[in-house]
Amino acid sequence: MNNLSVLLQPHHSTFQGCRSTTSINYIVTHALQTGFLSTSAEEKLRQLLQTTNYGVEELRAYTDLQKAVMDGWVRQESREKLFQEVMAQVA
Asked: Is 23 helix (H, G, I), strand (E, B) or coil?
């Protein structure tokens, strides 16, 4: 199994708290499956990481997402916008 197929495995959590479609695992899984992390999803992730009692699985999912971004498997909308702004200033 290659690195991408490992990253695309759903991230399940043993956290027994309230689960919603805005959970860390949901956002990470969606980004890994689509190859794209929107600015709104990135902001929600930031908020969840600061305000949620997340477990090891959520932390693992988040680090998997970071690695996927660094390896080029997932594009970040915020980085693309920043790059476009910088390029517009240079031109």
From this structure: coil
